[in-house]
Design goal:
Layout (H helix, E strand, L loop, with lengths): L9 H6 L6 H23 L4 H8 L6 H7 L9 H8 L2 H13 L1 H11 L3 H12 L8 E2 H10 L4 H16 L9 E2 L12 H7 L15 H14 L9 E5 L10 E7 H6 L3 E2 L11 E5 L8 E4 L1 H10 L2 H14 L18 H13 L13 H10 L13 H9 L2
Antiparallel strand pairs: 1-2, 3-5, 3-7, 4-6, 6-7
Helix pairs in contact: 2-3, 2-9, 5-15, 6-8, 7-12, 8-12, 8-15, 9-10, 14-15, 16-18
Bound molecules: calcium ion.
The site of calcium ion (CA) has 8 residues, from loops.
Length: 402
């Protein structure tokens, strides 16, 4: 999500103490006034006033959500770190178990929406670790806050009012509706407006429940991809090798040419299976520049991209789906001598840092800003560049010096 500046008075206001101050009182009043205007909008959407009152009773703004809205990344994540954490052995093993467990449902989903089981399961694995992490914030509270403060209020107001409609219709229990700070929820993290357009009741209980029903969530995800232009029977693309001296000018997901054109320019499959010599349109992407893996991506890659608007995200889904089918890792190495870490290795880094007496919070495999600052401060004494990054080299030095 794009960076959104906060009103300057807002940050200290909610981050200070619980002691009431004049500024704090003013802001509570602003939130109360804002809720009143939302109530009027809710009524115009046929949400009964009693429902509005019930769902917003005692609601206070969530200051943390606004901090997250305004967050600027302090550290740039290389694509190989991003993929190493998302497509690791754990997620492949867990995903294969889910393919087994939900086989019958996934077959029905594939028959109805034309999207392969492995693709749907890959999105599930990356969005919520197969239903293990939904986010912990009240969606109503987050969206009410974002509707009243910050620069994208119009967008979030629609999401907030749509949430009330979803709850009014009884698809999800209000107390169960938790999600990300921006209001995405469920097994595959739908925004409320996406829910409204796309979510389906696949288990036939009359409710579209993306938190409580795996069949509803997975079928809704397949429906999303179908509506985004998924082409049944076509893959997402191919890892390729470029000929020496290849001119990569004009590369890009959107600059598609026929596969036969790419072949004529000397591009070859990087795996045992040759590229189809056809007029199927494909774009060339080089996620780490010309020195790293290269991919020819088809229309279905764009459907994956539309789920989260990042090429690295689409590549993670694409690659995880291939690995779930038994495919090998990419054949070309990332252009680094310090590869990224799996979640198991990240947990090991955290445990080793903790063993050395550093306060890094919970050992959860998520290297957050706090842990990165600890790493950055420690790296010089370990003989490493102080970049705050947890890579293979840091793990090796921590192991060797414990
Ligand atoms: Ca249902």
């Amino acid at each position: 999500m794009s960076r959104i500046a906060l009103l300057s008075w807002f940050i200290p206001l909610f981050l200070v103490s619980l002691v009431p101050s004049p500024a704090r009182a003013q802001d509570d009043a602003a939130f109360t006034n804002c809720l009143s205007s939302l109530r009027a909008q809710a009524v115009s959407r046929k949400i009964p006033a009693t429902t509005f009152e019930r769902l917003t009773a005692g609601l206070a703004a969530d200051a943390e959500v606004l901090t997250l809205l305004d967050r600027q990344p302090e550290f740039v994540t290389p694509v190989w770190d991003y993929l190493a954490g998302l497509v690791d052995d754990e997620r492949i093993t867990d995903g294969r178990a889910m393919l087994q467990e939900w086989q019958a449902t996934l077959q029905r989903i594939e028959a109805e929406y034309g999207v392969p089981a492995e693709t749907v399961v890959a999105i599930w694995g990356i969005e919520s670790n197969y239903g293990r992490t939904f986010g912990r914030r009240s969606v109503v509270r987050s969206l009410a806050t974002l509707s009243c403060f910050g620069r994208r209020q119009e967008f979030f107001r629609n999401e907030f009012l749509t949430t009330l409609q979803i709850l009014e219709q009884g698809h999800i229990e209000p107390e169960a509706l938790v999600g990300s700070w921006a209001g995405a929820f469920g097994h595959t993290q739908f925004m409320p407006s996406t829910f409204e357009r796309i979510a389906v009741d696949f288990d036939g209980d009359g409710r579209r429940d993306l938190l409580g029903s795996v069949p509803d969530a997975l079928a809704s995800t397949a429906n999303y991809l179908r509506r985004s232009g998924w082409r049944t029977g076509q893959g997402w693309g191919f890892e390729v090798r470029l000929p020496d001296g290849f001119d990569a000018v004009g590369a890009g997901r959107r600059n598609k040419q026929a596969l036969s054109n790419w072949i004529a320019r000397g591009v070859r499959s990087a795996t045992a299976a040759p590229l189809p010599d056809s007029d199927t349109q494909a774009g060339l992407i080089l996620p780490a520049g010309p020195g790293g893996p290269a991919f020819l991506v088809l229309r279905n890659f764009d459907a994956l991209y539309s789920y989260n608007a990042a090429e690295s995200y689409a590549l993670a889904i694409a690659h995880l789906s291939d690995r779930l089918r038994g495919a090998a890792p990419f054949s070309t190495a990332w252009p680094t001598d310090d590869p990224g870490l799996s979640r198991a290795e990240r947990r090991e880094v955290q445990a080793l840092l903790r063993e050395r007496g550093h306060d890094i919070g919970e050992v959860d495999g998520l290297i957050g800003a706090n842990t990165r600052r600890v790493i950055q401060a420690l790296q010089p004494e370990l003989g490493l560049a102080a970049d705050g990054r947890a890579g293979k080299r840091l793990l090796e030095v921590l192991r060797a010096t414990r």
